[in-house]
């Protein structure tokens, strides 16, 4: 008996070894299973949504016609069977059988639930959200949610041409709002202007900051270059839409001479211009050898961080004098518009608000959003298409705006601007008296 048991042990070990090998040869395909579960879940959600919608439409029909099989002489609406129709669900247009209701005198009656579900707005919103997320119109159909049989999405709603038409229509509406929205009710002590280049065109974008630190996209204008004429056209449009031209305001720009000239011609001495310090630093360093760039850049930053406009101006002037002999181009670049790189500092603004307003970073971040939004465009047909895409990108970005960093110090800026306005009024009055 003992030998028989011992003789069976090798056979048992072989069986156990084969069993372990079989387990290793047939692993569980977890990613595939999870994907199937996800598709099944999405299909269940769509199917449940459609069933809820069908129940709502039936309730609307009961509301109009009364319960089925219960005659009521006071009602004029009667049931009319079903008819093929479509609704928007999950970013797709899906076919359904719509209940019909007819009036004995007025003909077909509308079901409120179907009118809401069949509207194109949800489909358009899904299209705009997909484009904002980086999905091209060509790939929209490939990212739509899975729907179960027999509810298959209509291809005429998810095809490239249909998606493109919806985007064109919606972006045209957004462009119209960008060019016509009234500005008279906005109190805008700060305006930033910068240009973005797309397909050989430059789109000037104006970003306003109100007294509470909230950002507002004011408008855009297309041109071939950032010329004074193009900038003045943009400013004239803003004034026509209600931007106050007779109040002191801080203009933050990248240092372009055309921008500076246009602002002065349109707003005169009430306009205080802050030239972007980061642009100024890069312009100076471009004229220097690499060995000197770090030291000169650090000296410029130290001057701008001093908190005293007069001291900063003296330091920068001494730096320009030191560069004059060996690097005259860098010295000229540093002296050019030097005072306007210190405007915010001269107004007594410090802290986070000073760090925010001394550069054009807020509007350059906005331009970066435009570039990311339009990254899938392969071919720009014309300038109108560029304007539409920029307007759509601006509206998408505006929904994520945060208050300006340092907004709690806005009262200090407002007081400084009002003081500048009073000084300007006295100066103009003195000029008039002298001329008389």
Quick take:
By secondary structure, the protein is α/β, with parallel strands linked by helices. The protein has helices spanning 2-25, 30-65, 112-117, 121-132, 155-158, 160-180, 228-240, 257-267, 277-285, 290-304, 309-324, 328-335, 343-346, 351-357, 361-373, 383-398, 410-435, and strands at residues 77-89, 92-103, 107-109, 190-198, 201-209, 215-223, 249-253, 271-275. It has 2 domains: 31-158, no CATH class; 181-427.
What is the fold's blueprint, element by element?
Layout: H1 2-25, H2 30-65, E1 77-89, E2 92-103, E3 107-109, H3 112-117, H4 121-132, H5 155-158, H6 160-180, E4 190-198, E5 201-209, E6 215-223, H7 228-240, E7 249-253, H8 257-267, E8 271-275, H9 277-285, H10 290-304, H11 309-324, H12 328-335, H13 343-346, H14 351-357, H15 361-373, H16 383-398, H17 410-435
Parallel strand pairs: 4-7, 7-8
Antiparallel strand pairs: 1-2, 2-3, 4-5, 5-6
Helix pairs in contact: 4-6, 6-16, 7-8, 9-10, 9-12, 10-11, 11-12, 15-16
Walkthrough of the structure:
The structure is a single chain. The chain is α/β, with parallel strands linked by helices and 436 residues long. The protein folds into 2 domains: 128 residues, no CATH class; 247 residues. 55% of the residues lie in helices and 15% in strands. The protein is built from 17 helices and 8 strands. Strands 6-5-4-7-8 form a 5-stranded mixed β-sheet, sandwiched between helices. It has a 3-stranded antiparallel β-sheet with strand order 1-2-3. Helix 8 links the parallel strand 7 and strand 8. Helix 7 packs parallel to helix 8. The termini are far apart.
């Amino acid at each position: 008996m003992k030998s028989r048991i011992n003789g069976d042990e090798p056979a048992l070990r072989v069986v156990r070894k084969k069993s372990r090998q079989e387990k290793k040869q047939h692993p569980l395909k977890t990613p595939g299973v999870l994907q199937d579960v996800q598709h099944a879940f999405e299909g269940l959600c769509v199917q449940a949504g459609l069933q809820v919608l069908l129940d709502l439409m039936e309730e609307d029909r009961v509301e109009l016609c009364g319960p089925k099989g219960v005659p009521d002489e006071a009602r004029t609406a009667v049931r009319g069977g079903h008819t093929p129709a479509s609704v928007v669900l999950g970013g797709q247009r899906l076919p359904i059988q719509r209940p019909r209701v007819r009036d004995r005198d007025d003909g077909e009656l509308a079901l409120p639930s179907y009118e809401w579900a069949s509207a194109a707005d949800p489909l358009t919103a899904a299209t705009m959200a997909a484009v904002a997320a980086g999905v091209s119109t060509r790939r929209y159909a490939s990212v739509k949610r899975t729907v179960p049989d027999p509810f298959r999405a209509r291809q005429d709603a998810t095809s490239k041409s249909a998606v493109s038409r919806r985007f064109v229509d919606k972006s045209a509406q957004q462009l119209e709002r960008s060019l016509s929205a009234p500005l008279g009710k906005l109190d805008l002590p700060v305006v930033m202007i910068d240009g973005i280049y797309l397909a050989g065109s430059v789109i000037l974008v104006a970003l306003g900051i109100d007294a509470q630190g909230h950002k507002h996209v004011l408008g855009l204008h297309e041109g071939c270059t950032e010329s004074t004429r193009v900038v003045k056209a943009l400013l004239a449009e803003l004034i026509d839409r209600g931007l106050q031209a007779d109040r002191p305001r801080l203009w933050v720009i990248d240092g372009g001479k055309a921008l500076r000239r246009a602002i002065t011609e349109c707003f005169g001495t009430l306009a205080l211009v802050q030239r972007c310090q980061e642009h100024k630093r890069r312009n100076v360093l471009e004229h220097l050898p690499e060995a000197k760039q770090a030291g000169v850049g650090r000296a410029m930053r130290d001057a701008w961080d001093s908190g005293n406009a007069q001291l900063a101006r003296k330091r920068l002037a001494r730096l320009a004098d030191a560069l004059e002999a060996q690097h005259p181009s860098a010295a000229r670049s540093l002296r050019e518009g030097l005072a306007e790189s210190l405007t915010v500092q001269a107004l007594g603004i410090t802290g986070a608000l000073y760090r925010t307003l001394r550069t054009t970073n807020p509007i350059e971040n906005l331009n970066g959003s435009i570039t990311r939004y339009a990254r899938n465009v392969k071919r720009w047909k014309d300038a109108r298409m560029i304007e539409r895409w920029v307007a759509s990108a601006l509206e998408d970005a505006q929904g994520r705006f945060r208050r300006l960093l340092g907004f709690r110090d806005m009262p200090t800026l407002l007081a400084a601007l009002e003081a500048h306005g009073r000084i300007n009024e006295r100066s103009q009055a003195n000029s008039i008296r002298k001329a008389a």
